[in-house]
């Protein structure tokens, strides 16, 4: 398997992988992502050279974005205040590669890239109801920040998100 920056040529396959992830999450009752998010953000992530992928030959196995800021960053009490964090966004694993340790592997890759980019901690947000992701982050050594970020999606839906971080 190869870990690399995503390129424009990867966008169509990336969107297909994420649509399958969204459909799978919906079947499990996790209505967190939709037709717009995260698919509509992937092109901008590629342009900004912050979207990383893991491939198995020509197949995209997983992806994530590393961002310098996050909308909910100031809503929580982080253990590493005053640092230079990077934020892990849009971590997704191809549904045909689940239960193979790919999520843990991608977290390790994200930490390595964040170190290279000069960050001293890696942070992320996860929706309260996404218990599998929360277990993965805790198993991987990330620590939950204090507080909850409530992200208003529209007049009906507000997502409650927890922050997790790890010192690099």
Automatic annotation (TrEMBL):
**What are the UniProt keywords, alphabetically?**
Acyltransferase, Transferase
Q: Which residues form a coiled coil?
A: none
Q: Which InterPro entries match?
A: Acyl_CoA_acyltransferase, GNAT_dom, YpeA/RimI_acetyltransf
Q: Which CDD domains match?
A: NAT_SF (cd04301)
Q: Sorted alphabetically, which SUPFAM superfamilies does this protein's record hold?
A: Acyl-CoA N-acyltransferases (Nat)
Q: Which GO terms describe its molecular function?
A: acyltransferase activity, transferring groups other than amino-acyl groups
The record's listing under Pfam families reads: Acetyltransf_1
**Superkingdom of source:** Bacteria
**Gene3D superfamilies, alphabetized:** 3.40.630.30
Q: List residues of the N-acetyltransferase domain.
A: 1-168
What PROSITE patterns does the record tag this protein with? GNAT
Give the protein's recorded name: N-acetyltransferase domain-containing protein
Q: Which organism is it from?
A: Faecalibacterium gallinarum
Question: Lineage of this protein's species?
Answer: Bacteria, Bacillati, Bacillota, Clostridia, Eubacteriales
